Amino acid sequence: MSSLTFDPTYAPHSGRHRRPSVISRPGPAPRPVVAEVATVLAGLGFGACVALAVTAESWKQLSAPGGVAMFLGNLTGLAGTYLALVMVLLVSRIPVVERVLGQDKLLASHRRLAPWPISLIFAHAVLLTFAYAEAARSGFFGQIGAFIRSYPDMLTATIALVVMVAVAITSVYSIRRRLRREMWWAVHLFMYLALALAFAHEIALGPSFVGHPLTRFVWSLLWASSAGLVLVYRFGLPLLRTFRHRLEVVEVHPEGPGTVSVICRGRNLDRLAVAGGQFFEWRFLARGMWWQAHPFSLSARPRPPFLRITVKGIGDYSSAVARLRPGTRVAIEGPYGTFTTHARRRAKVALIAGGIGVTAIRSLLEDLPRDCDPVVILRASCTEELALASEVAELVRHRKGRVHELVGPRSEVRIDRVCELVPDLANRDVYVSGPEEFVDQVVSTALRLGVPKDSLHFEVYSL
Amino acid sequence: MRRAPAVVIASAAGFAGIVAMHGAGSPSLLSGGGPSAPVSSPPTTASPSTTPTVVPTGTSRTAVGTSENYGYGVLAAKVTVRGNRITDVSVATIQTAEQYSQQLAQQVIPLLRNEVLSAQSARINGISGATYTSEAYAYSVQAALDTLGVK
Predict the structure, then answer these.
(1) DSSP code of A190?
(2) Structural domain for B21, as ranges
(3) What is the ipTM for the molecules in this complex?
(4) Is A251 helix (H, G, I), strand (E, B) or coil?
(5) Is residue B43 very low, low, confident or very high in pLDDT (cuts 50, 70, 90)?
(6) Whether residue B117 has pLDDT greater than 70
């Protein structure tokens, strides 16, 4: 189905007439060295923090009452706070980093790392309370009161700890599941506040910082820089892009049962450097939707002044998307994602889409060169669910490739049939996108068939 | 994690770097045990003497203990003994890193003096809320007593 405003047909670059409204700017290429540099820096910092705790300690202090607990308390404080800094930077969406690692991997790393800083910081509080109580021969809980009353910046540090524990508890999967997404998100944002509140007590009381102006300066610089990066890249840049492009919904039209395409119009879209296969976080400024941002891939390269996404109505939110009224303003964050032509290692490709995963494949195809001999597999439960199939077919035809439509219920169609359809899968770059279960199955099949990990790219569509 | 070896090596390098920059001067776990070596990075002004000195005055003998860097400042205690008895303890040098430690030291040092005099040794209880100050004081007193050959 075609739209009134957005023409998704692709005119191949024949040398004569290049369609002026299709701008081919796949965006800057990622530089893999950034990932290596970032991990080395992270390691260096961690080792330095541990060393700060060790060099501030002496054998005498260790043998004093509460000495060992004091040392461990200092060590856990330094290590835990450093890891908290790493956590913040992981999700600060710094473009050079995001281009290489991808927002989905960065979020996954953020989630995996999470138990460490929170456990270390909690241990830090318990250990130091115990240590000071031992040295002062007072009770544990009395010592907590003593901390808050008599030591500088300990009240804010205690508040910070309470907030951190609250954020951690709400993020535990079994609890997060029961919370509404907006509620979880609002609590989570308080982590920035907690880290800011805790800063003062670190340099006022930490043995590595007291009397060591250089260490204090470096630590403060580290925190100030991180705050700056968050302000600029997590909040500033998305705001800038939203205002520069001023997107608004112009049309919503169906692509199939439960699936709609949303066309947005904006300004200066020729300056939006996005690669096919990338996504944005979309915040539709309509009632009931403005407090949520959801990721949707572009389902075609921008055709200034238009952008298109194609959304399947699975949850409340995606169903609300189908009811969007023209004129609704849109705030965007992005582009994010490494599901692009830049990730390609080989000349030939295989593109495997499950359900609505076809959107990323569809826009990726526009960026692929003519000699990539694409084999595309579209998987859907029934033929009507094959959204954008005709567009995909057209793009593939221009590249002299093949499309296979695997249609049918899950009980009948087995994913490992892909090996029959693409006999030389191990020699291709494989792009998989769709629901989690689908992607998992295809990825494990592909790995089993000998596709190297570096040539396997996937995008999981979660609810 | 594929990059785990790089992270581990970088951590070791960061660790080594800080240890190297810290130097062997200040007392730390890595520079060996025992009483502190001469202070190499005092917070404010350099302390005049770091080794114990003995000044004989009649039957009263006085010694200044080692300068103890306790993280929040540096202090050295001066002990006066008559025979085998500690008759006076005072502070020969003290520099604190910041205002809070300064106030704390001022409040706590008279109490510590009383503790040493009543215990007649450096093995004192220490004052709650001033752990590091108390320890530094006690160690400095002990060093002075060692020099005097008492207790």
Answers:
(1) H
(2) 1-33
(3) 0.83
(4) strand
(5) very low
(6) yes
